[in-house]
Amino acid sequence: MLHQQRNQGPVDRDQAENQRKSKRQSQRALDPTPCTAGRSDGRRVFAHFENYSEMGSSRPALSPLALNENALFTRQLTFPHRLIVSLTIFLQKRSLAMSPHGNATSNPLALSSFSDSSPSGSIPVNATAAPSVHNSYLFGDTPAYSFSNMIDFAGDNPNVETRAIDAATGKQRDPFVEAMDQQLSFFFQNTWQIRPGLTLNYGLRWDNYFNYPVTGLTRERPTFAPQFTASQVNPQGITALVNQKAERSFNSDLNNFGPRISLAWDPTGKGRTVIRGGFFVLYDEGYTLNAYRNLYRNPPVSTLVQAGPQFGIPTVYGFAPEGTRDFPINPGLKGSAIDPQYGIFVGTRPNLAGYTQDYRTPMVYDANAAVEHQLLNDLAINFAYHYRHTPHERFVFDANRFNGDLVDGRLDRLNPHYGSITTYTNLGETTDHGLIVGAKKRVAQGWHLNASYGYNHGVDNFGFTEVFNPSVDTGRSELSTNTLKFNSIWDLPLFRGRTGGLATALGGWQLSTILNFEGGGRFTPTSGAAYGSGGDFNADGLRSDRPDLPASDVTRSFSKDEWMRGAMKASIFPRPNTVRIGTLPRGYFSGPGYARVDASLAKSFPIREGLKIQFQAQASNLLNRVNISAVSSALTSAAFGTATSFYPMRALQMSLKVIF
Predict the structure, then answer these.
(1) What is the percent of the chain where pLDDT is above 70?
(2) What CA–CA distance (Å, rounded) separates 81 from 113?
(3) Among candidates 327, 330, 285, which has minimal Cα distance to 305?
(4) 485 vs 439: CA distance, rounded Å
(5) For burial by CB atoms within 10 Å, which of 235, 254, 348, 502 has the most?
(6) 13: closest CA among 139, 186, 189?
(7) Rounded distance, CA 256 to CA 412, Å?
(8) Residue 205, phi-psi category: left (phi > 0), alpha (psi -120 to 50), beta (remainder)
(9) Predicted TM-score (pTM) above 0.85
(10) Which residues are CB-neighbours of 103 under 8 A, at least 6 positions away?
(11) Is the pLDDT at 334 greater than 80, yes or no?
């Protein structure tokens, strides 16, 4: 299916959001320091996480630098019994790009307090509070259209029309949303030096991310949402759901206690070997802004409705008059009155979104261990292992569907009063294992070399193939299983140790290189076609289903040249001939690998004391290697199994910097 949009904002973000969640889980790598645990930055192997007086935080904390830059004032008070309380008010900057259908997050005012009793060995207690105001534009205020193929797209013949309607006017709704969420945390930590060479860190943290409000912040208005629990996320429970007035998205979760412990040990006492390890219980705050968008679109204030052959409502395709946003209203999507029993427009089937009332903040078990040993004066080796497991991860899916729904040609759904019912619950599960072996060596005078090998194995169930059964999508989650990295710094020996004008002009150059090699990420063939047209094999109305496994053995990884020519054909994948899901596992194949060499040549020219000019020439992808960034996985595409986009080729740049 070719999915194109005209005169509209972003399409429904629920599936993309879960894909981003899967990507983030797969990108988490090793952190060699057992007292930190955070999120990785994409292709880097080592995760970096900035902490402010806390250990093993699950979200970016407030650094001393941020406090210095953003502090408004600090006040310290002394109380009886030598209790000292220090309060700091500061602004924590959060900004996102603003677009006509994008979003922006204002700078929330945050309060950080630190209390410490007498300096006689008692444990410091810390607290942070951070309210955030979110501003966003909603999807659907202008119509969105989907097309089955390129011919229909060229002929302006959509097969699905989606838009949001305002109940009061029958026209497009006000797209602006402003809402607030809050975080409150208390934590303590302490360091205990058991004996020389053996140090223990321990602490406890409590987090409360509050339950998201679903009423407006500056534009107060009644908001509706389905009210149900996790035990009702089944065919019987979804069939009985009704849309009703709601003040909160889910019940408060006050049990987010996170103990953490780590140690550092020098077993020989000679400073040549160190063993580190840690275990943490962390909590993930989730994705507030996307939740707001979905909850705000619930009827009856506004409703997201769809037209098309499978919905039994003809589409209306047209353009707004120049200079206006008055797109034609589809009379089949407009209700004349509100049904008080179901909270919908009479004659429509709007989409809903809601949290299970017993939704809990996802709890993460995080553990790591590392050993570093200095073999020689100029050679050190290290070994590190990282484990991360979330048994009840946030999971978002359309619960209003069932296998075989489209057999009669209509999308009836479990609950016939509504369209999709986007359900937020705790059905997700992720597990990540990571291993890194590295070495650091000074090869010769002025030449330093670091090398590391990383192995990652991640599994999650973030898929939507079969409703109420996410286990069928359990599969590989990591973007790259194997990584090999080298980086070196070489102070070139030219005129080394010599003085004079010639040595000053031609000596002192430094060459830096980075070599990065990565194995291929997961690759899963899917069909975006409709039921009966080579896709949606279980006929539940949700496309992008996987086919069956090939009848004979097939290679699961390919070379770059094979991906360039077309590594496989769509015809090798059988399609289910009955109403069922395909047998091909998620992440069954490995995509293209990645290799890149970067280099930098730099030199500083001293002008006088305290003033110098630095010259630097940089080359990214120095060898100009072709690296594939995407391969078509759509079985209905003529380019299936073939590379469709690439990472940038060689880029050169030079710079001059004045340092004083």
Answers:
(1) 74
(2) 19
(3) 330
(4) 11
(5) 348
(6) 139
(7) 40
(8) beta
(9) no
(10) 96, 134, 135, 136, 137, 289
(11) no
Q: Closest Cα to residue 352, out of 241, 233, 515?
A: 241
Q: CB burial class (10 A; 0-12, 13-18, 19+) of residue 618?
A: middle
AA letter at 43: R
Q: Distances in Å between the alpha carbon of 650 and those of 525, 616, 618, 625, 647? A: 31, 17, 10, 8, 10
Which residue type occupies 453?
Y
Cα R_g (the chain), whole angstroms:
29
With cut-offs at 50, 70 and 90, classify the pLDDT of residue 221.
low
pLDDT digits (tens, 9 = 90+) for 13-30: 344 444 444 433 333 333
Peptide bond into 300 cis (omega under 30): yes
Mean per-residue pLDDT of the chain: 78
Please, are residues 284 and 390 in contact by the beta-carbon 8 Å criterion? yes
Condensed to tens digits (0 to 9), the pLDDT of residues 553-589 reads 899 999 999 999 999 999 999 999 999 999 999 999 9
Query: And the tokens for 207?
Result: 């987090």
Provide the residue type at 74 as one letter: T
Q: What is the mean pLDDT of residues 251-257?
A: 89
Kindly report the backbone phi and psi dihedral angles of residue 65, in degrees, each rounded to the nearest multiple of 5, phi listed first: -65, -45
pLDDT, position 477: 85
Q: What's the pLDDT score for residue 169?
A: 64
Those residues whose C-beta lies under 8 Å from the C-beta of residue 321, and which sit 6 or more positions away, are none
